[in-house]
């Protein structure tokens, strides 16, 4: 395999891409921006990036019902995206972190299908990771901030959790995610928060749990961690209405449908 110039960023990405395409443990193709995220996530260490990439696609191909058999426009995906908002917000924090916002758009627990919802979230991230973090800017985010609005979330929702899907999701998030999770903010937490935590705590690693902030009194404490102007209008920010931001991203996902469904980008043909 060709060597690379240790001082040349693009040459190292070229090297990784050639290694990827020649590796029988990996799919035939990879989006170059996604490849850069793997590299940056591992602090620009080529060998560590290679390990992360192999783990990522090993997990994907071990659970094809979540990672491979998917269509952002099919009925089950439409139901997920209608009742749940999963929206990457525009802009970056001063630390160059990207924010993704989650909330229930419809609190009816019967609308929830945890496995399909997990699949939907993976499609959201796969779509985002092959898209620029800023318009007309090639720089990548340095990490990920997740905000969950718990309004409308009940114990009936928790009862619909799939333990197997939750385990897969946490494994993927902890071991294979191509960006560094910096913090997770839970806002508008219900009074029965402790009972909810008891359900999911066994599946969350100590490292990930340390990143979670629970905002129980008011949303004001969130502003101490996240720039207010990057939040949706409904949450005291000026990034725009969440419904408009969601509609824009849903169009991006629809445009990326062929990429998300193309097995050449995701499926490993040989073990």
TrEMBL record:
CDD domains: SEC14. Residues 74-243 form the CRAL-TRIO domain. SMART domains: SEC14. One of its GO terms (molecular function) is phosphatidylinositol bisphosphate binding. It holds the Pfam family CRAL_TRIO. It comes from the Eukaryota. One of its GO terms (cellular component) is membrane. This is Phosphatidylinositol transfer protein SEC14. It comes from Glossina morsitans morsitans.
């Amino acid at each position: 395999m060709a060597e690379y110039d240790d001082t040349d960023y693009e040459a190292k990405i070229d090297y990784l891409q050639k290694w990827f395409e020649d590796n029988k443990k990996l799919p035939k193709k990879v989006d170059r921006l996604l490849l850069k995220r793997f590299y940056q996530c591992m602090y620009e260490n080529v060998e560590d990036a290679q390990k992360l990439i192999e783990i990522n696609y090993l997990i994907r191909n071990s659970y094809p019902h979540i990672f491979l058999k998917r269509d952002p426009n099919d009925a089950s995906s439409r139901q997920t995206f209608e009742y749940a908002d999963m929206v990457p917000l525009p802009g970056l924090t001063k630390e160059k972190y990207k924010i993704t916002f989650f909330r229930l758009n419809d609190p009816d627990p019967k609308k929830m299908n945890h496995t399909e919802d997990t699949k939907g979230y993976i499609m959201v991230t796969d779509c985002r990771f092959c898209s620029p973090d800023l318009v007309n800017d090639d720089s990548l985010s340095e990490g990920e901030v997740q905000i969950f609005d718990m309004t409308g979330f009940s114990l009936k929702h928790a009862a619909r959790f799939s333990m197997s899907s939750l385990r897969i999701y946490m494994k993927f998030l902890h071991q294979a995610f191509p960006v560094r999770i910096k913090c997770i903010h839970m806002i508008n937490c219900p009074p029965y928060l402790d009972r909810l935590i008891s359900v999911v705590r066994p599946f969350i690693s100590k490292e990930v749990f340390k990143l979670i902030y629970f905002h129980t009194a008011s949303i004001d404490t969130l502003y101490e961690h996240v720039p207010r102007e990057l939040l949706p209008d409904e949450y005291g920010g000026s990034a725009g209405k969440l419904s408009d931001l969601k509609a824009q991203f849903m169009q991006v996902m629809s445009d990326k449908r062929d990429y998300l469904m193309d097995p050449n980008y995701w499926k490993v043909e040989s073990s």
